[in-house]
């Protein structure tokens, strides 16, 4: 069996498993007591799963099972384990050290992300011969600042919010301000947007070129390769790099644009061979050889439809030599008539899912951006109980609103913090002070009804960890095999 057939076979098994057990992933966790997923757990599974020790519960997502367990449960665990993607952390790239001045404004999480991501990006830039990084969704410019200050790379930051672009400009140092260009631009998956992106890149390239010529009048300008591409897929680290053979073309940075030849994508060359003329979506006389640098397209936290849009640019724009992105928030992809145009992107996988009646939903897609099973390996009994309360208490609030036909909205980003889950009475008080309800009932009536729901549904708390931690994480590790 060749590699393509192996992938097809694996996808088929995964889709069939997901379709058969949709009750595990096709519900909102905050509506746990409304949708009652525990009713779908096979009775023979319940007897085992509700009696697990903390150690066994933590080991279940890693393939743990016992000989006397039901065959159907053991088969589910075995199949999920065999289909799982490898989750080993790469040791190839070490994080960079951040100067105190560069770390200004970054919380510990952001420092961790930026230090590791920047080292990885630099490595890919070296391997692909890229001299400019296009940071999509650049925010306040933390990542671009490190790439320029530590590795000397030129950076074009694309950010949809003008306030963030302004904030990123304020972070620039005098010795790096000629290497970073921050622009307000929102990347979308439309031909018009890609044409605008191409025009914008031309302007940025010209600004870099003028800066170079101002420092060095003997500037030869950027070198460009137009040879065929060789695509390499590094799925384990979510990296796609496009390495192209470099030619020894020299171009004068100050050469008049009228004497240049427009750059072509693979699709342009194909159209030219067929006599259809150039593809005007991403090409045209607006971008010339001397304008173009070798670019690496990157994104940290590429939310929703941003990753598919970047993939389209990567596949069509000849000057983009590599792609490195960390996707997130798949559930924020735009849906049309109950379907997601960008998921799955594989036509073959889409066909297999349709045959098995597996339709992506927001809860299904949300799981793809959740943390991996590794975090649960060492969870304590106390941690599990805190998680049970956090899920159950919020679900009881949703159940109350559902039964009473009441709408509520948060007045603050979070309804409650970790310390508010010690007991349900404390959670109720925090909820009443931090949420606005459309109900005409007084707070005393709401307290009484919420406490009654707690008494009725407390017996089902035992299923929270079984479903939201153990079983779901078995499914989670397989969701997005291409």
Structure notes:
The protein is globular and about 75 Å long. It is of the alpha/beta class. The chain contains 18 helices and 9 strands. The model is unreliable at 216-290 and 477-482 (pLDDT under 50).
- The helix/strand order is HHHHHHHEHEHEHEEHEHEHHHEHEHH
- Span from first to last CA? 18 Å
**Average pLDDT:** 80
Assembly status: single chain
Main sheet makeup: 7 strands, mixed
Total of DSSP H or I helical runs spanning 4+ residues:
18
- Uncertain regions: pLDDT < 50 for 5+ in a row? 216-290, 477-482
Gross geometry: globular
- Strand order, biggest sheet? 3-2-1-6-7-5-4
Secondary structure category: alpha/beta
The count of strands amounts to 9
Q: Rg from C-alpha positions?
A: 26 Å
Helix percentage range: 40-55%
Strand content: 5-15%
């Amino acid at each position: 069996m060749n590699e393509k057939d192996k992938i097809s076979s694996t996808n088929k098994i995964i889709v069939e498993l997901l379709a058969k057990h949709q009750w595990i992933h096709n519900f909102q966790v905050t509506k746990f007591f409304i949708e009652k997923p525990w009713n779908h757990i096979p009775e023979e599974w319940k007897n085992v799963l509700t009696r697990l020790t903390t150690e066994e519960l933590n080991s279940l997502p890693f393939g743990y099972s016992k000989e006397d367990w039901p065959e159907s449960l053991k088969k589910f665990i075995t199949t999920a384990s065999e289909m799982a993607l490898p989750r080993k952390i790469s040791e190839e790239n070490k994080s960079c050290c951040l100067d105190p001045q560069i770390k200004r404004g970054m919380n510990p999480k952001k420092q961790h992300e930026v230090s590791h991501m920047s080292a990885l990006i630099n490595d890919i830039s070296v391997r692909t011969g890229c001299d400019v990084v296009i940071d999509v969704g650049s925010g306040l410019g933390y990542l671009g600042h490190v790439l320029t200050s530590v590795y000397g790379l030129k950076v074009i930051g694309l950010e949809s919010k003008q306030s963030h672009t302004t904030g990123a400009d304020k972070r620039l140092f005098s010795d790096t301000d000629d290497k970073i260009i921050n622009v307000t631009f929102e990347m979308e998956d439309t031909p018009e947007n890609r044409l605008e992106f191409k025009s914008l890149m031309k302007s940025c390239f010209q600004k870099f070129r003028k800066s170079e010529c101002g420092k060095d009048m003997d500037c030869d300008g950027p070198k460009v390769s137009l040879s065929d591409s060789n695509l390499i897929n590094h799925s384990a680290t979510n990296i796609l790099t496009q390495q192209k053979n470099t030619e020894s073309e020299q171009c004068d940075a100050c050469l008049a644009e009228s004497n240049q030849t427009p750059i072509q994508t693979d699709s342009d060359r194909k159209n030219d061979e067929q006599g259809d003329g150039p593809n005007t979506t991403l090409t045209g006389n607006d971008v010339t050889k001397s304008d173009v640098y070798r670019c690496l397209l990157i994104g940290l936290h590429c939310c929703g439809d941003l990753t598919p849009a970047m993939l389209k640019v990567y596949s069509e724009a000849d000057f983009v030599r590599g792609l490195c992105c960390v996707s997130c928030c798949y559930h924020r992809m735009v849906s049309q008539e109950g379907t997601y145009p960008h998921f799955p992107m594989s036509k073959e996988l889409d066909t297999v899912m349709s045959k098995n009646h597996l339709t992506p939903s927001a809860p299904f897609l949300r799981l793809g951006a959740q943390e991996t099973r590794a975090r649960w390996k060492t969870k304590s009994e106390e941690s599990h109980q805190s998680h049970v309360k956090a899920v159950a208490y919020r679900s009881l609030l949703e159940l109350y609103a559902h039964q009473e036909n009441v709408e509520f909205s948060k007045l603050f980003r979070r309804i409650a913090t970790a310390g508010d889950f010690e007991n349900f009475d404390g959670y109720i008080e925090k909820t009443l002070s931090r949420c606005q309800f459309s109900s005409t009932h007084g707070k005393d009536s709401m307290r009484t009804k919420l406490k009654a729901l707690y008494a009725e549904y407390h017996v089902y708390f035992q299923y929270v960890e079984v479903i939201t931690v153990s079983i779901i994480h078995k499914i989670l590790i397989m969701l997005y095999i291409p």
